[in-house]
Amino acid sequence: MKQLIWISFFLIFSFSKAQDVAILKYNGGGDWYANPTAVPNLIQFANKNIRTQIAENPITVQVNSEDIFNFPLVFMTGHGNVVFSDDEIENLKKYLISGGFLHISDNYGLDKFIRKELKKVFPNLELQEIPSSHPIFNQTFSFPNGIPKIHEHDKKPAQAFGIFYEGRLVVFYDFETDLSDGWEDEIIHNNPKEVREKALKMGANIIEYAFKN
After folding, report:
1. Could you read off the pLDDT of 110-148 as tens digits, one per residue?
2. With DSSP H G I counted as helix, E B as strand and the rest as coil, what are the percentages for the chain, rounded to 5?
3. Which domain holds residue 88?
4. How far apart are CA 60 and CA 211, in angstroms?
5. What is the rounded average pLDDT of the residues 5-13?
6. pTM value?
């Protein structure tokens, strides 16, 4: 209990101090390690442009680890299967309702698996489309039309979904856009500079919002 109280205090009052982010390692066979340059590049961008002080190399945490409680923001991506065990479900739920934030980036193929597992974490809550008026789209950078389109999958519009627990956004899920592709080194996807910049700015907004809320 003391640990959870300390985490909530940390999230509310220490945005200007050093905070770190983590990458979620999950079971099921999906490539949780996809896009290895993405989060380091986003961290570098955020430290430069929104004055965060995040460690350059993100830590990897497992879903059932107590270490997850050391991070105000955990990032998750991949293309394939995701399976949360009972103890992982319990741990992830405790993390999220005590002040943590999970950003999931659909790297194409993740959707049908992650939706099923999130339902185990919050059986009574639904993923909701986040309106463009939500504050996460208006932090340091403004996205009046909501989440930007970065990477093409099935010629569908980009969407941002969220899970809200007692009114607080605890899970942010970018779908049919793949923000993390836009964070990767330019040579990997050959995205134009303006596309990568949009992705990084949206990622920085997510970090800023998560650290403040």
Report:
1. 999 999 999 999 999 999 999 999 999 999 999 999 999
2. 40, 20, 40
3. 2-212
4. 19
5. 42
6. 0.89
